[in-house]
Amino acid sequence: MNALRNKVQLIGHLGNEPEIKNFDGGKKLANFTLATNESYKNDKGEKVEETQWHRLVAWGKTAEIIEKYVTKGREIAIEGKLTHRSYEDKNGEKRYVTEVVVSDLLLLGKP
Fold first, then answer.
1. What is the spatial distance between Cα 64 and Cα 58, in angstroms, rounded to a whole number?
2. Which end of the chain is more exposed for a tag (fewer CB within 10 A), N or C?
3. Which residues of 25-47 are buried (b: 16+ CB within 10 A; e: fewer)?
4. Which of 55, 53, 50, 26 is nearest to 38 (CA)?
5. What is the DSSP secondary-structure string of 17-84?
């Protein structure tokens, strides 16, 4: 059961072009958003579609693959873990961020 702790799996489409950052020593970071869609029928029998947006980050080799092959609108499957962090913005206000740190990536659909 340990393998199931803090595990996230998502399939969706990229909402924007990945933002790639390069650090000393050649380490890469990719920041991007993923949209997942869910549909259901409401009380009136009408189809309702909901989109959830997820913030994702990837490091190292995974970030390199994202930089080379993943563009806005591309469908991907990811696996990772959910993380929470906080920071102070330029106005000194504390901000909280929830994001998925990607460990595995699968390219789906057409590029």
1. 9
2. N
3. eeebbbbbbbbeeeeeeeeeeee
4. 50
5. PPEEEE-GGG-EEEEEEEEEEEEEE-TTS-EEEEEEEEEEEEEHHHHHHHHHH--TT-EEEEEEEEEE
Burial degree of 76 (CB within 10 A; 0-12, 13-18, 19+): buried
φ, ψ (nearest 5 deg) of residue 89 = -80, 180
Q: How many residues does the chain have?
A: 111
Does an H or E element contain 7, and which? none
- 104, two tokens: 């595995």
12's tokens: 């969706």
The model's pLDDT over 11-52, given as tens digits with 9 standing for 90+, comes to: 999 999 999 999 998 899 999 999 999 999 989 889 999 999
Read off φ and ψ for residue 33, nearest 5 degrees. -115, 150
